[in-house]
Amino acid sequence: MENWKKITFFVAVFAFVREFRPIEPFYAAYMTSPYINCTVEQVPKELYAVGSYSMFVLIIIIFLVTDYVKYKPVLIIDGIGGILHYVAIANRPSKLRIQFGQAFYGFFFSAEVALFGYLYAMIEEKQFYQKITGHARAATLSGKFFSSCVAQLLAMAYGSPPFNALVYMSIFGMSFTALWAIFLPPVKQSLYFHKRKKVDDTTMGQSTVTIYSPEKYNQAKIGIEIPATIEQKVVEDPKKQETEEQYSVINTLYRDFKQSYSDPYVRKLCFWWAVAMGGYLQVYAYINVLYTYVLEENEDTEFTLYNGAAESLNTLLGAISAFTISKVKWNWYSVGDMFFAVGSLVATVVLLCLVYCRNLWFIYAFYIVYGMMYQTMLTIAESEVAKRLNEKCYGLIFGFNTFLAVCINTIIIYGVIQGHFIKINIAQQFLIYAVLYGFLAVIFFGTSILKLFKDEGIVEYK
């Protein structure tokens, strides 16, 4: 089996079992059930907020430590963090215990940055990046789909969600995740904290080739100019290489950060990535709170919750779209802006519908459409960014993008959810998320129009 296929298989299994957390679709319902008896207002303000603040504190530390320990140990500890989170909420926990568990959930989420960083660090052939990103994303969503199906089937079989059983099944999923991570092939060398020669850092090290139309665009440039010898990777004087001056960790981090973001295409995609993920973190966390809120507002005590079914369809369609888009051979540099603009506009519309709709069936449908659009766009953003980065920059850039998303998430938590800036109800929160995606839609419609008047040539990857 080719190396990239083997690594993708290992990562896909890890991503699948990591998402086997059947309690998640019914988490808010569990918190507001007689087992715990929190109010629907307490769940976001006093419980979820702890996890968000934990993410904010840990994310920078995690993506630096990830490289120092070479990815694999972080993936193992990621599973352990998930175990501790679900153990903390088992067996009628107190509010303090739940908050303690939420702190571990913050670590669990923050460590996710190591997953795709590990994938790209282990596979050097950048021509496979769109494909492996789609496969890994599809595995993640398939795991969520399977987990949500199990949760919904058990809820229907018992007449209501068997909360404690779902929690223990989630603990099992996290245990298998930690165990599987032990068998992942190791990354051989740290990228920043092991000694690296100066010669390694003089170029972006891209294996992709940017091609312009030679007749009209021979002077056109995108981002960083790539030296002609970049593909050769041949050192003429090995003895001279051995005596090159070593760079400090901080200088290397700064240089790689500056070099990576000097590419305008990377900056643009990372901007979409950070803002869209910030909105997604909010939607994913509070959609279940919205379900409970709408039922209480409608005073409907007879409706059977189909949260698991909605989550399963959301992830199934997202997995299918992520896998399908990984096979599409479009020139994303040319069509990407319009693609992200239209996708963000669709997300804006369905999120606005969530603000005003009070029919739970329609809310399920809107959430499914939103999830499908987000996962499709994220797959392209990740793979396109990865293609243009040096292999040692994945953890740094992916981690920083996630950090920005967590910053946005934390600001909304502090200012809107906990009411320090404005006080709105749970349904009105989704108006904030719609504004985020509407802002992205306007930006990318604008850049796609500008590109019509500033044609830089045909760009392809080989």
Please outline the helices and strands:
Layout lengths: L2 H16 L8 H5 L10 H27 L3 H17 L6 H16 L2 H10 L6 H30 L4 H20 L55 H5 L6 H13 L2 H35 L8 H19 L6 H25 L3 H28 L6 H24 L8 H28 L9
Helix pairs in contact: 1-6, 1-7, 1-8, 3-5, 3-15, 4-5, 4-8, 6-15, 7-12, 7-14, 11-14, 11-15, 11-16, 12-14, 13-14, 13-16
Main sheet specs: none
End-to-end C-alpha gap: 22 Å
Overall pLDDT metric: 81
List segments where confidence is low: pLDDT < 50 over at least 5 consecutive residues. 195-236, 238-247, 457-462
Helix content: 55-70%
* CATH-level-2 architecture: Up-down Bundle
Q: Quote the beta fraction.
A: under 5%
The value of Rg in angstroms is 23 Å
CATH class group = Mainly Alpha
- The CATH topology turns out to be Growth Hormone, Chain: A
- Total strands: the figure is 0
Supply the number of helical segments: 16
Structural class: mainly alpha
Give the overall form. Answer: globular
Order of helices and strands: HHHHHHHHHHHHHHHH
Assign the CATH superfamily.
MFS general substrate transporter like domains
Integer count of domains: 1
A few lines on this structure:
This is Reduced folate carrier,Major facilitator superfamily domain. This protein is mainly alpha-helical and 462 residues long.
Describe the structure.
With 462 residues, this protein is mainly α. It has a single domain, classed as MFS general substrate transporter like domains (Growth Hormone, Chain: A), CATH 1.20.1250. Helix content is 69%, strand content 0%. The protein has helices spanning 3-18, 27-31, 42-68, 72-88, 95-110, 113-122, 129-158, 163-182, 238-242, 249-261, 264-298, 307-325, 332-356, 360-387, 394-417, 426-453. The longest helix has 35 residues, at 264-298. The protein is globular, with a radius of gyration of 23 Å. Mean pLDDT is 81; it is low at 195-236, 238-247 and 457-462.
